[in-house]
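Students often ask why we bother encoding 3D structure as a string. The short answer is that it lets us treat folding as translation between two languages. Here is a chain of 177 residues written in the first language.
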Amino acid sequence: MPTINVSDFALNYLKHHAEPLVDTTVSVLDRILSEHESLKASKQSATTLEMRFGGKELPSVKFTTILSAKVAGKPASQRYWNNILEDMIAACVARGAEPSDVQSLLQANVMQGNHAENGYRYVPTAGFSFQGLEANRICRNLAALAERYQVPLDIELRWQDDDKAAFPNQTARIILP
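And here it is in the second language, the structure alphabet:
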């Protein structure tokens, strides 16, 4: 085991935190380091903001990474905004929504049938394709569909380390409706 020199201040600190006749210098240091790691982990989890948004209260989700997503209680097919919108459309139709009604709520370019050109994405259960959108527009569409058809949506995300991000380096959950 290596030998280290410590200052009088550090030695007094260790003595203060030691349990007499039980602890050794090593056990005190290990406990202090363990407590430090626990505190660091709790601070990291404390920076997780749990936000509940609805309708027009959504924050900007530009510069985000999706950590997890559930649509109607099931994990999203992929952790990308457009895929989550596909899953939401399918969930609305599965709950009995008419595809034409779902289509009328979307703020997106929509074409009947299967189209894959120009960024269109086909939703087989709905029988139409929508053109891929940027994150904020998708989020507004998700909110409208979740609220109209009462489809639960739970997205955990992290804003990137970017000055243009709404909450740089923060994590949050968007829970709808």
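Translate back mentally: DSSP finds five helices and eight strands in the chain. Keep this in mind for the problem set.
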